[in-house]
Fold:
Amino acid sequence: MNRFKNEYAGRILVTICGGFLIVLTLIIAIFLIVRGSVTFTQFHHSVAEFLFSSDWSPEDSAGAYGGGVGSAIYIVGSLLTCGLALLIAAPFSIAAAVFITEISPELGTKLFQPAVEIFVGIPSVVYGWVGMTVLVPWIRDAFNAPMGGYSVLAAGIVLAVMIFPTITTVAADSIRSVSDNYRKAAYGLGSTRWQMIWHISLPAAMPGILTGIILGLARAFGEALAVAMVIGKTRAFPDSILSPTNNLTSAIASDMGNSANGGEMNMALWSMALLLFLISIACILVIHLISARSQKKMLGK
Amino acid sequence: MNEDSMKRIRKAERVNHFMTGLLYAVGGFFLVLLIVLAGYIIISGLRDLKPEYLSFTRQGIGNQFFNTVYLVFWSLLISVPIGVGAGVYMAEYAGDNKFTKALRVSMEALSSLPSIVVGLFGYLVFILTFGFQWNLLAGALAVSILSLPSITTTTEDALRSLPKSYKQGSMALGATHWKAITTVLLPAALPRIITGVILAAGRGFGEAAALLYTSGQSTVLNWNNWNLTSITCPLNPMRPGETLALHIWVLRTEGALHANSTEVANVAAMILVLLTLGFSISARILTWRINRKSTGEK
Structure:
């Protein structure tokens, strides 16, 4: 009995905690799949229509259906803003990671690490708010943008600032873990520091850097309010990066509460949530694939 | 050495200098960006600060501030025991089996979930399924789903980074594995776990997307009402509880209706940034102390 109290009770308790996490994940997945697939099962829309059509005119009352649930505008909006954010953030983040690992590790740990933590700590609505009150008017004045500066560009920049800490931290960890023997060998052969970074450090750290970029992409895809505040939310494909559009998360954030529960529109929004969930799972899978491949390479197979 | 290779070396050196300069510039750019950004938020908050904005009334954001802290309190109450428990399992009991693998995968999936999706899940379960009105507890549950993976990971890492001799010593003295965990390992890992909890709390303060459809976008509190079942009682967790971050989201569209909504949002943004800043700085000081203690410096 004593043995039970002193060992097994505790062991069972923490195992239940672990089991709870598994169950929670499964429940989230099941709820999203059940709710998100109604569009396709009950309302008889095809997945292709949902993904590739831009006819968004769902019925908004419980039980009624027959409208269009084409979400291509939202999907393209998400892809464009995230793509732009990566295009801006990835080079800068990798450069910052190289700076804090190879150029000045001392400044890196003393100044940069805390600074990056502060970037992470700023809440996303605050990013959105600054984007809306500073960046959007600036884009309007600087580029003469239509719709008062609410644009793909604004969303891309806000997202870039938000994902930069993620990419930088992961990339820096990966560069740091490159064996020092590689560096010594490169210097021994007469490389300059940049040649060593470009030909040795970066290629060796590439799997980790890619992981960082994908984590950043996942974060950008899932970000809702900051983007919703600057993207303009117009239901049209953007003509240029200066024109407004809409994306998945903004549509969910602004329309979920206004749509009739159980209606076609409501269910289409749940399908978008399911799509976001699948994208985040896909990102994890890609990361696993990258690390499995690089491990294989390391073992020389 | 012939002319050609000298040229190549000089070129390589020039490129090296140029890239070093460029990387310094990028590093400097980020620091300047951060200082400008944080400085802008804090200065415009201070500029627009008026005493009535801090009051616990409809005009002020006192109620929202209270909701933010109260919601994070509830979310930690839920996520810390479960997260620490799961972390102990991962560090101490996890065998090389399917259960452990499933747990790892689950944690990864949970930590990469977009917060709006978690918010929708909360909406579906706590609001639609159980038929509650918007309530603070539903928001706290959503936030605790978001902080569970990080608390679990920190606990696991904290326990794993302890010297093996701690466990061996206590078990050699006759303690069971569980006794060793509760009396020796957890106390030793506590500072690190607390650091992780502080960071999770800091993120909780700024969460908004997960709360949109759980804790509600309004709040009415009566500070003389202490009847816990009343929906205006501040301590009742089953009442709508708009937080600071959510308040900024709500205010963004009200510029036309209320002239001072921009000012209030600026003040709210400042308070949020100071709050998260304060938490991440205190986590940092704690980490620094742990490191100093463990390396034996004074």
Summary: Chain B has nine helices and no strands.
